[in-house]
Amino acid sequence: KRKQNGFIKSNFDNELEESVNQLQQSHSKAIAQPQQSCSSAKERKKKRKKEIKKEVYGTFNNVYLVNSEYSNCLEKYGELTTRMAIEELSGYKESTGKQYKSDYAAMIRWVFKTILDAQSKQQTTLRSYQDIEFRPREAVSIYDKLSGDENKND
Question: CB-hemisphere CA count at 13 Å for 1?
Fold first, then answer.
């Protein structure tokens, strides 16, 4: 037992005091750690993003899709329309500098609509031309007309 500040301290008191100091230190570290845990949360989010491997598509290599997103587009719209949509989005992103959080969402939201509208207009135009009957005309040169006119006058 030791006497300190007028009080008698035992070994138990010293151990208790050390335990309290250790708890206070660990508590102060725990209070300071939320900033670190936020950065680690950001790091975890980045790791998850890295784990989800996106494939690169488009002429300008700027359309990013997960394999499941690409296969969903193939199932819903077919290969030709999906490829056209990817090229449309790739060209748009390259020419405007626009970036999307999700290229898949952009494709679903507006790119496929643009492609399908253009295809329906093209089919309507083709149908209207198919209804017109084209008859080939005889090709007659000016020389033939002139020479034919002269023969009639003789």
Answer: 5
Does residue 81 contact residue 119 with C-beta atoms inside 8 Å? Answer: yes
Q: Give me the DSSP letters along 89-125.
A: HHHHHHHH----S-HHHHIIIIIHHHHHHHHHHHHHH
Q: Which of 59, 65, 109, 64 is nearest to 88 (CA)?
A: 59
State both tokens at 124: 């309507």
Cα distance between residue 73 and residue 5, in whole Å: 79
CB 62 within 8 A of CB 94: yes
Q: Quick one: pLDDT at residue 133? A: 63
Sign of the dihedral through C-alpha 66, 67, 73, 76: negative
Answer whether 57's CB lies under 8 Å from 90's CB. Answer: yes
Q: Over the stretch 52-63, which tens digit does the pLDDT of each residue have?
A: 889 999 999 999
CA dist 99 and 92 (Å) reads 10
The answer to pTM > 0.70 is: no
Position 43 scores a pLDDT of 79
Which two three-digit tokens encode residue 11? 């070994």
Residue 126 tokens read as: 């083709």
